[in-house]
Design a protein that fits this description.
The protein has 79 residues and is mostly helical. It has four helices and no strands.
């Protein structure tokens, strides 16, 4: 249970970082995109998110994938 708590705490830190990026006024869309890209890379490392879509991983980590996909869609929509 302790490990789950640590993952939840970590995920909330990533969510807060995402909100901070979204509220920051950047000099360009590219600058914002770079920050979002760094956030996604950090999540990929922390949670071992696979490069290709993996339904089994998604089923086991729905909260992680929800935030990760939200960040990804933000990058796509803002370009």
């Amino acid at each position: 249970m302790k490990n789950m708590n640590n993952n939840t705490t970590k995920l909330s830190a990533y969510a807060e970082r995402y909100e901070s990026i979204m509220q920051t006024e950047f000099s360009s869309t590219l600058a914002k995109d770079i920050e979002l890209s760094h956030l996604m890379s950090d999540m990929e490392q922390r949670y071992s998110i696979p490069m290709l879509r993996d339904p089994q991983f998604e089923d086991h980590h729905p909260d992680v994938m929800k935030l990760y996909l939200q960040i990804s869609l933000t990058r796509i929509l803002d370009q």
